[in-house]
Each structure stands twice: as structure tokens, then as C-alpha cells.
Design a protein that fits this description.
The complex is a heterodimer of chains A (324) and B (225). In chain A, the strands form 3 sheets. Chain A has a 5-stranded mixed sheet with strand order 7-6-8-5-9. In chain A, strands 3-10-4 form a 3-stranded antiparallel sheet, with helices on both faces. A two-stranded parallel sheet of chain A has the order 1-2. The relative contact order of chain A is 0.17. Chain A contains 14 helices and 10 strands. With 324 residues, chain A is of the alpha/beta class. Chain B has 225 residues and is mainly α. In chain B, 76% of the residues lie in helices and 0% in strands. In chain B, α2 runs antiparallel to α7 (130-160) and α7 runs antiparallel to α9. The chains are: A alpha/beta (324), B mainly alpha (225).
Chain lengths: 324, 225
């Protein structure tokens, strides 16, 4: 009881401080008119900054279980906080199978996902036509009371990587090259891989790749990367925006038959929570987020061991979303 | 109800029992890993506990270190070891040995310390050497408690071997870890059920072993003041 009361007081103090901060910054920019908050966001000099959006709703930001997800969820959370929303973070909830139901039943309000993987998960068929893919995604989610906002330019696909030594030994540059030798190779991927069309199922159907063994590790995380470098697996599922590919000298095999669809980052929001400035704020982040940004931030967290929250703050500052 | 029906369906589908991803193969892996860890831990823990109990020296330090070891989560050891020795059986083996040692050291130590001083003095008076007192008097009299430690460790090891699935190894933990990843709760439930059944079977097996090795005269421990 005691703890929770302190927590409530703490949250109120924090919320109050945020409100004050938000009022302070908007006061500086206000031209003194009777403009509504949204109009102000679009017209004042600090347009695009998080504080130029307004909201007081309580929102719970979720994420799946790898570091890039946590970074992007931090971007959303910090910007929403700066705009005055009362943000609760529930990160690392598990794979999509766990996060999407949590979104539907209201345990979380929003989380970042990837266009192609999400549509595939919803039994749709993403193509390279991004407009059609996005429309299909919206249709598939509407019935679930869930909405997707604008996709970012930033993309992160499932990639399949080998070490330089393996690439040289078997003369591998693209996934087609792998089919001939895959029977002798051990693959490491996430536990859900063998049920995924964009993982084991697709590798077999599109490329005819079947491995000697499929070791169930993590989603291109430290286990997979260490096992690949240590030679305990020959091929690993590594996410294409992973800064470790260059840093650890892995060779990403080219997806020459386009198994992986476009995988732009996209905010997925519960329709009930998509009110006021939420969509405009998240769209403004998506508009500036590039794949290079993503790789750079991933490298800072995964290799330089920086805190995802601090890395997100830096990006928001560098891009004019919050003040230094 | 439909959930339980799904569980029954899972367990009655023969494809789920056979092959390298089947229940039989995974149970076998699970048991082999547990047995290897338990035997290794016995080799480390029992001599240590017996000698400490017999000499009465260093017992305080050993017991506290051992209790400290009990407090370290196996989950942390597995993940740490995986980053040192790599994925697979090794990190799980190390963590399970570390889990199994403390209860056995503590119980063996307490068992030997608990043997009546008068009995020990009589044995010494009859001309038995220290080692003979340990072998012929202290160990037989302490066996029920020593075996209780082995049983505790055995059950914990079988239940915890589930964690090996987190670092790319097999065993029954695969049903739980993969089930969580794909939100297949039938698989998670079946995994938990099988691990629980295996733990109980281990307990029963070790109890039978205990009955076989404890001298008949000690089976009903005399509680006379």
C-alpha cells in the first residue's frame, strides 16, 4: 500500500512537471492567438518538436523482444511524454504473438512493428507494392480495433548471415547459393522460426534451403551472433539493420528471390488510443527515421552497450524533437 | 474445457511422441542432462560435506558459501555461461551442477554433525580410525539425511533443466520456450506437465534408491531421548 501510494504521488509529480515543461515551451512559441493546439503545431517555429504536440491521455507503449524495438519504443515514449501524455513503458513483451493480443485487449496502447512481417503474420501476402501492402495491412487490422500509422523510411528485414570464412569456403554471396550446401549447415534463429513463412518455411519454399539442424536461439540477438562468430552455427538469422554485421565481419546473404517483403517500421496503435495528436506526433518521428539511423542506434546499444533510452534521447535531440 | 481437450489431443497425437522433436527424445535428453549434472554434483558435494562434517572444521564457511550458491539464480548462470562457453548443453550443465551442489553439501554436513557424540566416542574407543568411524558409523547413520539432500537436488535439477532450452539446447524446456515464443499455450502446458511428471518420477526413483542403500536398522529413525 505504502509503495503504491508513493508511486502515485511520484507519477503525479512527474506528470505535473511535464505539464509545466510543456506549458513553458509552448508559452515561448505561442504567438498569442486563439489557435488550437494542432494548428499551433503546424505553424509555429518549433513545429515538429515533441512539445508542439499536446495530449494528456494515459498511454502504454509496448515493444517486442529485441533491442531495436526497445530503441524505437523509447523514441515514441519520450516524445509522447514531452508532449504531455502520461506514458507507461512495457517493453520486451515477447514475440508478435504476445504483443498483438496485448494491444487488442488494451494492455498496451501502441508499439512499433514492421509492415511485411506484420501482414504475413495476419495471413496476408505483402508485395513490393508498398501502397497495396499498407492498404492490406489496414484492412486486416481494422476488425481487431487496431490501426497502423504512416511507415518510416527505416527498414529492418530478416537477414541470413554467415561468417567471412563460411562465405569463402562455400562461395556464398546470395541465398540461392546456400541451397546446394545447406544440408551440411547448422542454422540458428528464433524459437518461432520454423513456423514462420519469412523464416524456415519461406527458405524452404522459395530457395529449397533445408538445414542439417535448426537451433532455436533468439531474434538476431547476442546468442545468435555469438554462436555464429564462435562457429556453433553456420548460418544465423540477423536483422538487416543490425550494426554488428559490419562490426563483426558477417556476410549478409543477398535475398535474390525477394523472400523478404518491404519491412518499413510502422507505429501500430489501438484505435481507441489513437486520439488527438498521437498520430501526428508518431508520424513526425516516422518521417525522419532512416535505416542508417536505425543501424547507427542499434550499433550504439548492441556493440557499445549504450542505454536504449539514452540513445533514443540523443536521436530526438539531434533531429530537433526535444531540446538538448 | 477446449484447452484441456487440446492438451489431450496434443498428448494423444503419435507424431508428437516420435522423432528428434518428439516427447520421448526430448524426455531422454532431459533425463540424461539431469543425471549428468546430478552425478557430477554428487562427486563434488558429498565428499566435501562428509569431510567437513567429520572434522567439524570450516563448516560454517562452507555452509554459508553453499547457501550463497543456492541464492544465485540458475537463469543468470545459464545466460552468463552461454556468453562464455557458447550455446548448447554446456551452459545448462554448469548451471545445473551449481544448483545441485548446495543442498547436498548442507545435508551431508548436517547429517554427519548430527551423529550422536557418544556413538562416535564408542567407535573411537573400540579402536576405529577416523576414516573407519566416518565409513562405518557416521555415513550409515547419516544416510537418510544425506539422501534427502540428493533427492532435493535431483528434483530441482529435473525441474530447472527446462532452462536449457533458452540457450539453444533441447529437452522438455523446448515445449515451454517455443510455446511462449509462438503463444502456443497448449505446448507450454504440455511441457510443464511433462517436466512435473518427470520430477515426480525422479523423486520416486531416488526414494527407492534411498530405501535400497539405507541400513534396515535406520529406516525407522529412533526418536528416543
Amino acid at each position: 500500500m505504502r509503495r503504491s501510494r508513493i508511486g502515485v504521488v511520484g507519477a503525479m509529480v512527474a506528470a505535473g512537471a511535464l505539464l509545466l515543461a510543456a506549458c513553458g515551451s509552448s508559452g515561448n512559441n505561442a504567438s498569442g492567438g486563439d489557435t488550437s493546439t494542432t494548428a499551433k503545431a503546424a505553424t509555429t517555429a518549433s513545429a515538429g518538436s515533441c512539445a508542439s504536440f499536446k495530449g494528456t491521455d494515459s498511454l502504454t507503449v509496448g515493444s517486442t523482444n529485441f533491442s531495436e524495438q526497445e530503441i524505437v519504443a523509447e523514441l515514441y515514449s519520450q516524445c509522447l511524454s514531452a508532449a504531455g501524455f502520461k506514458v507507461t513503458k512495457k517493453f520486451k513483451l515477447g514475440a508478435r504473438e504476445a504483443v498483438l493480443p496485448a494491444l487488442q485487449n488494451g494492455d498496451i496502447s501502441l508499439y512499433p512493428d514492421y509492415v511485411g512481417s506484420l501482414l504475413t503474420f495476419l495471413k496476408g501476402s505483402p508485395t513490393n507494392d508498398s501502397t497495396a501492402t499498407l492498404a492490406a495491412l489496414k484492412t486486416a487490422l481494422t476488425a481487431k480495433g487496431v490501426d497502423v500509422l504512416k511507415p518510416a523510411a527505416a527498414e529492418d528485414k530478416n537477414g541470413f548471415a554467415v561468417t567471412k570464412a563460411t562465405a569463402t569456403k562455400y562461395n556464398l554471396a546470395k541465398l540461392s547459393d546456400l541451397a546446394a550446401v545447406s544440408k551440411n549447415l547448422v542454422f540458428g534463429g528464433p524459437p518461432e522460426c520454423d513456423t514462420r513463412p519469412l523464416c524456415a518455411i519461406g527458405l524452404k519454399a522459395t530457395y529449397g534451403i533445408t538445414f542439417k539442424e535448426l537451433k532455436k536461439l533468439d531474434v538476431g540477438g547476442p546468442l545468435t551472433k555469438d554462436a555464429l562468430e564462435g562457429g556453433q552455427i553456420d548460418v544465423g538469422l540477423i536483422l538487416t539493420s543490425d550494426g554488428a554485421i559490419a562490426a563483426r565481419g558477417f556476410v549478409l546473404l543477398q535475398d535474390d528471390k525477394s523472400l523478404q517483403p518491404p519491412e518499413n517500421l510502422i507505429p501500430v496503435v489501438r484505435t481507441a488510443a489513437d486520439k488527438g495528436d498521437v498520430a501526428a506526433l508518431l508520424d513526425s518521428i516516422s518521417a525522419k527515421l532512416t535505416t542508417a539511423d536505425l543501424s547507427a542506434m542499434n550499433k550504439k546499444v548492441d556493440i557499445d552497450k549504450a542505454d536504449p533510452s539514452a540513445v533514443a534521447t540523443t536521436w530526438l535531440q539531434d533531429n530537433g524533437f526535444i531540446k538538448k | 474445457m477446449s484447452f484441456l481437450a487440446d492438451v489431450v489431443h496434443f498428448l494423444t497425437t503419435s507424431a508428437h511422441w516420435w522423432g528428434t522433436e518428439g516427447i520421448l527424445h526430448r524426455s531422454q535428453d532431459h533425463l540424461l542432462m539431469s543425471a549428468a549434472a546430478l552425478v557430477t554434483a554428487m562427486v563434488i558435494a558429498l565428499p566435501l560435506g562428509l569431510v567437513l562434517g567429520h572434522t567439524g572444521r570450516g563448516g560454517f564457511v562452507a555452509i554459508n558459501l553453499s547457501n550463497l550458491g543456492r541464492a544465485v539464480p540458475s537463469f543468470a548462470i545459464i545466460v552468463l555461461m552461454a556468453s562464455i562457453v557458447g550455446i548448447g548443453a554446456e551452459p545448462a550443465y554448469v548451471a545445473l551442477v551449481a544448483l545441485a551442489v548446495p543442498p547436498m553439501v548442507t545435508n551431508a554436513y548436517t547429517a554427519i554433525r548430527g551423529v550422536d557424540d557418544e556413538v562416535k566416542e564408542s567407535a573411537t574407543g573400540m579402536g576405529l580410525t577416523g576414516l573407519q568411524v566416518l565409513r562405518r558409523v557416521e555415513v550409515p547413520m547419516g544416510l537418510p539425511l544425506i539422501m534427502a539432500g540428493v533427492r532435493t537436488s535431483g528434483v530441482q535439477v529435473v525441474a530447472t533443466a527446462t532452462l536449457a532450452a533458452l540457450v539453444g539446447w533441447g529437452g522438455l524446456g523446448r515445449y515451454i520456450v517455443d510455446g511462449i515464443a509462438t503463444r502456443n499455450f497448449v505446448s507450454v502446458f504440455v511441457g510443464a506437465l511433462l517436466v512435473a511428471a518427470l520430477s515426480l518420477a525422479t523423486e520416486a526413483g531416488l526414494a527407492a534408491l534411498q530405501r535400497a542403500v539405507v541400513p534396515r536398522g535406520l529406516v525407522v529413525a529412533p526418536e528416543i531421548d
